[in-house]
Amino acid sequence: MRTSIILMVTFFTLVTGAVMAQKEPTRQTVFLQTNAQCGECKERLEGVLNFTKGIVYADLHLEDKKLEVRYHSKRISLEEIKKLISEIGYDADEVKAVKTAQDKLPTCCQPGGHDH
Amino acid sequence: MKIIINSLAILFSFSLLGQQIKIHGTLNTYIDGEITSPLFGGEAFLKYAGVGDISDEKGHFSMTTDLNLPDTLILRAAGYYSDTIVITEAKDQEYKIVLFPEFVAEEVVITARRANSNVLRLDPRNVEQLTQGELRKAACCSLSESFETNATVDVSLSDGVSGSKRIQMMGLEGRYIQLQFENIPFMHNLDQPFGLSSIPGSWIESIQITKGAGTVVNGYESMAGLINVEYMKPKTIDKLFVNGYTSIQGRGELNVQGGGSLNDKWGTAWFVHGSTVRMDNDRGKDGFRDMPIGETFIGLSRWSYSGEKMEANFGVKANFSDQQGGQVGYNRYAHQQNQGLYGVGIRNLNVELFSKTGFFFEKNPFSSLGVIAYAKYNDLSAVFGNRALEANEKRGYVNALYETILGTTSHSLKSGVSFVFDELKQVMDDRLPTDTSMRTLNRQELVPGVFSEYTYTGVRSVVVLGARGDYHNLYGWQFTPRANYKFNFTEDLAMRLTTGRGFRVSNYMMDNFSMMSTNTPWLVDGDIEPEISWNFGGSLMWDFNLFGKRATWTADFYHTLFTSQLIVDRDESSDYIRMRNLVGKSYSNAFQTDVKIEPISRFEIKLAYKFLDVKSTTGGVLETVLMVPKHRGFINLGYETRNQRWAYDLTLSVFGSQRLAQVRYADGTFSQDNKSEAYPILSGQITHRFKRVEVYLGGENILDYRLDNPIVDVENPFGENFDATRIWAPMFGVNVYAGFRWSINHK
Q: Exposure of B576 by Cβ count < 10 A (0-12 exposed, 13-18 middle, 19+ buried)?
């Protein structure tokens, strides 16, 4: 009896754990620090990310240069998103912009493009 | 865009309590290239902290706040390029900032996503701008249809057989609106009745609608207002763009366009449009096509050059259109006697050449010289049953404009000379049961003119005073004075006033082209005078916050008074349509109010109401003008999902009762109830965007409101009572369309 209770408890703990693990949301929202600074940058970033598979939406907040991205973690990983941003020519948290892509951006989107 | 921080003085270098810091400074602007003056009413605010200030009359601004570093200080003012300064240190700082006026800066700035339709806030005139985003809301096939989601300009069918659409503004016909593309006046005489359909919607970058007297720089013809169309430019066009459209009415359309920069200096863009209607639509079962069948081909090639001392834009546009309406089965190119069918045929060929050149002066960066040249060849051949019209027009136009400042940029002056040449040949041959006549209208216009427009830009107000003098070879000297005044009560509340004279040489055939679709004869007086109007008006515009979002309210009133006008009198008699000079009064009072709100992010609501009191003396009595609704309502809802992949748009228009002409029915009795009923038009569209492609599905006139049997005495199209002009609502009923837009951009 005692053993069966222990087994039952163990079983339920495992099941609950498994269920809990499954309940971990597959849709996540992250805020990535970029160096995008103007409306043109906003159009470039959102224009690519919003039409990338796995991304629910991307919204650049120009006031703090943070890019809000909601995505399906099963379809696209955070690393892939950051890599994509760097390939457009912008920093994404610790991932730095790909230099060649950054050089291709219009002057106003280049780092320092708004300092005179 | 360039900002100069002349000095950056750190006032307090000791640390303060917490992160509370004070940011202050002065905002200045250049007035002549060297000297600066304080800028009043400029905005300075911290984007992240959300605090800000408006600069006072000495240009000073100040704010104290808790900062979460880094933050960005944004500086902006109407008429100047905005700038930003990133603040990384928690120190009190004073900034001395100089903003460049917009026309001095060299760089072009692309701002964040713009509203699709908005009133241009800097313009001293009441100018409403529609962008490509707005045009895409309703898959506009052409310029005339692009106004269907707009409350200022009304679009309706001209008549029951030709399929052409007419526009109205302030209850006045489209001919009283000056039309221009990229500031070049166009669509005179022969292309006036249907030229709007010769501009495909996908070619248009933006449209500006000015209410009231326009600038004198572009001529004397703006009476109710002015509509300017900007085509896509080599700099803004996609590398390749393809748009296809089809509808259940059997209309098919294809637009292909592309272009781009060729090198540092040269750019080009090309546009091709083809459309066709092959299917006979006759929902009313009256034996007449509800819309004509036919083909249209339009092409445009344009080139641009921009060097250090000059800029040039030139191009050529050609349009060929062949439409056949009337009784089902009618073929214009088959033997007429054997057919015995009432037909409408409109064949229009139009070729336009244009060039715009601008010169800059190194020593004087505030002056420039611009030269515009335009030439048109137009050939029109039209048949409405037993009425025929053959017409040909050659037109040339040159305008040279010198722009400079008087001492400081607060005072600027545009002066120049212009010349118009127009050679018109028109023959109209009527073989009606009660009238057989051959009319000709041949004329040559030669109009040299001079003009000058002075603009004062003060801290709160803008004054524009303009005048032009033209010597018309047929009608002598014409003096056209105009004035505009704008006053900003606050940053968010502005008032505009306008007054001015308009002058226009009428063309009784083309102005009343749709009147060819009746067998009632015309009775045209021999001494038709040119038309002269005075317009007085004003508007108020208030930007405010609602639901935490920006909202806009506008209200305007315009009074247009004609002192001379070509009156189309259908009240004098039902036996003929009298066209004569105005005797008595003719005016329009138009009131309009609009509200634009965004209750939820990306969900926009636009509401508008219009009251039109348009009267003229016809039949000896001051009567409401025919086919003008007294009341007009408009609701537009637009929503876009956060990832921009889906866009929804719904527009409800309500047209109030209109006065109709009295007509005689087949049995010889006269129509008694000469008022139309009020009716709604609902249309909507869903757009789904993919990376390179967007597809759309839409419905027009979803409530299926239609006139069932609008043609009078349709059984007897060659008889004296036949009349297809009594069209005050759609004839088509519901229409469903679908299309795609595919593009490759330059990025």
A: middle
Residue to test with chain B: of A33, A91, A108, A110, most B Cβ within 10 A:
A108
| Ranges of each domain in chain A | 25-105
Per residue in B108-148, pLDDT (tens digit) is 333 333 456 677 777 788 888 888 877 787 776 788 878 88
Residues with Cβ within 8 Å of B622's Cβ and at least 6 positions away in sequence, in order, are: B584, B585, B615, B616
| pLDDT tens-digit map of B467-520 | 999 999 999 999 999 999 999 999 899 999 999 999 999 999 999 999 999 999
Taken in order of first residue, the domains within chain B and their CATH numbers are 4-99 (2.60.40.10), 117-229 (2.170.130.10), 230-341+350-406+413-744 (2.40.170.20)
Q: Phi and psi of B54, rounded to 5°?
A: -110, 135
Closest CA of chain B from A87, distance in Å: 13
In contact, B159 and B727? CB cutoff 8 Å = yes
Query: What is the gyration radius of the CA atoms in chain B, in angstroms?
Result: 28
> pLDDT of B23-56, one tens digit each?
888 888 766 555 677 877 788 877 777 778 888 8
Strands B693-700 and B679-689: antiparallel
When scoring B98, B110, B238 by the number of chain A Cβ atoms within 10 A, the one with the most, hence best to mutate, is B110
Rg (CA), chain A: 21
**Interface predicted TM-score of the whole assembly (ipTM), two decimals:** 0.73
Any B CB within 8 A of A102 CB: no
Closest partner CB to B109 (pick from A37, A51, A108): A108
Residue A43 forms contact with B (CB below 8 Å) = yes
Q: Which residue has the tokens 């956060």?
A: B642
Q: Euclidean distance between the first and final Cα of chain B, in Å?
A: 23
* Reported pTM: 0.82
Provide the CATH number for the domain formed by A25-105 in this structure: 3.30.70.100
Q: What is the 3-state secondary structure (H, E, C) of B124-190?
A: CCEEEEEEHHHHHHHCCCECCHHHHHCCCEEEEECCCCCCCEEEEECCEEHHHEEEEECCEECCCHH
Question: Can you say whether the dihedral through the CA atoms of B460, B118, B185, B506 is positive or negative?
Answer: negative
